[in-house]
Design brief:
CATH class of the largest domain: Alpha Beta
CATH architecture of the largest domain: Alpha-Beta Complex
Strand content: over 45%
Domain Nudix hydrolase: 39-174
Shape: globular
GO molecular function, one term: bis(5'-nucleosyl)-tetraphosphatase (asymmetrical) activity
Protein name: ADP-ribose diphosphatase
Cofactor: Mg(2+)
Largest sheet: 7 strands, mixed
Keywords: Hydrolase
């Protein structure tokens, strides 16, 4: 079913650290008026990188996650800097976090975090034909690189230290894409 988007009567903005908080005065097609709040990032989006050592092995990184105060396994990820494309950001982040560059990079799609109240998007990038190369990054310590077989995703998603939704979704999307992608 296709619906007409609500009419925005007014937007009120507030500073919220790295985000801009907007309060929207909306009117729906049925006449209902409501206030919604959403967060807009101040940056240029982000990348989530699936680095494939080979078509059966992905490289994960273990890094400190302040939100849950523990070390988490996950994919390479990071902000897109001003003037960068998602492919350039993916290659840079891969070199900074995992110590590899990629000769082949493919953007599969954008992922949202919480689209009901947040505009942030992360571009899912597949990195293939890897070669060793390290760039200095902004992490306070070197990240541990952990190879993981894609046919063992069922074990990975049950681990307590692998909980980030973008990484989980990206790995399943990448696995499906690999089933039909040219080798």
């Amino acid at each position: 079913m296709s619906r007409r988007l609500p009419t925005i009567h007014r937007i009120t903005e507030h500073d919220a650290g790295p985000y801009r908080l907007e309060r929207l005065d909306l009117e729906f097609a049925n006449g209902e008026r409501r206030h919604y709040e959403r967060l807009h990032g101040r940056g240029h989006g982000a990348v989530v990188v699936v680095p494939l050592l080979d078509d059966d092995t992905v490289l994960l990184v273990r890094e400190y996650a302040a939100g849950v105060h523990r070390y988490e396994l996950g994919l390479v990820k990071g902000r897109i800097d001003a003037g960068e494309t998602p492919l350039q950001a993916a290659d840079r982040e891969l070199k900074e976090e995992a110590g590899y560059g990629a000769r082949s990079l493919t953007v599969l799609r954008a992922l949202t975090l919480a689209p009901t109240y947040m505009s942030h998007q992360a571009h899912l990038v597949i990195a293939r034909d890897l070669y060793p190369e390290r760039l200095p990054g902004d992490e306070p310590e070197e990240l541990e690189v952990v190879p993981w077989k894609l046919d063992a995703l069922h074990e990975l998603i049950l681990r307590e230290d692998f909980s980030e939704g973008r990484s989980i979704a990206a790995l399943f999307i990448a696995r499906e894409w690999l089933r039909t992608a040219p080798r």
